[in-house]
Amino acid sequence: MTSPDTTFSAPERTHLRLGFVALSDAAPLAAAALRDLGARHGITIELCRQPSWAAVRDKLLSGEIDAAHALYGLVYGVQLGIGGPQADMAVLMVLNRNGQAITLSRPLADAIDAGASVKQALRALGRPPVLAQTFPTGTHAMWLYYWLAAQGVHPLRDVQSVVIPPPRMADALVEGALDGFCAGEPWHAVAQARGAGRTVAYTSEIWPDHPEKVLACRRDFAALYPNTARALIRTLLDACAWLDAPAHRTEIAGALASKELLGVSRELIEARLATTDGGAARALPVRFFDGGAVNYPRASDGLWFITQYRRWGMLNTDIDDAAIAASVNQTALYREAAKAAGIAVPGEQRAATFCDGRVWDGGDTAAYLAGFAIGA
User: Fold this and answer.
1) Which of 2, 44, 85, 144 could be bridged to 39 by S-S, CB 3.0 to 4.6 A?
2) Which pLDDT value is given to residue 128?
3) Where is it localised (predicted)?
């Protein structure tokens, strides 16, 4: 029997319902639940599969689930009340970096392979291309918009952007309802295996080692149950560390293949969940831990999403963006949990160079926004 961790006081809540969407990067939640990694921290985990990110949002807000594997941008969209209900939200930790992609239909991918630019290939359709992402303020919408703009394509004027739940992406591409999509795995691998399209870009090419899914909850949950929140962070850190081993990626791919989790063949999941690039020379592998370098909820990462909402005209109010990011990202709770686990906490600042050569360091947001040639 696992000995309980007595570093902190006992969790105020011992059974937690965690929401997730059928994606390979739900692996930390799956590992935590299937291996009962919460036992030593005094909690048990119940996985609650959701059909869409909107369902994750709604059930977090209603209290039907306690926390969730969530799009970074979903948390900020709810915090800011963009296109839906507003509530004070919390990012407890980052669950993974990289691991997303953009897939286009075979005719478009073939045209690009033959030497056409992305802009030329899309224009040759003779109509606005229909490209899907997974949530209006989510990471995939922001990756898709950023990538298109870097190719000289205006994502709001030249493209019809639609929202589709990740598990529906491959089907929609097969049916001809889409010309392409940005989402997480394994749905790109599924679309490619079905001959409907090919991956033309990886999100790690847009922002190398970008933050992707986070462990999210309502802010009042973290405030009312701080011991529970720390226990949950400790549990997911253990799960992320376990996933660093290549053999464990293989093992979790088999578990994720079950109909209760993803319902996709192990081979398709494992190929793009590997600790190497899975044969995609341009892609950085999905990262879950790397000694804790992945997991710190750096406020400047959250602030970047706010800059993109302003760039695309989704946010026009005069608010203190940096203060919002500092209130959402629970850096103090994370630091306490990481210290108890003996995990180093990275620095607050991290500069990143994007695919268009722009550098984001969390500094002067007004100057950063003014530097974009394409925006709302």
Assistant:
1) 2
2) 97
3) Endomembrane system
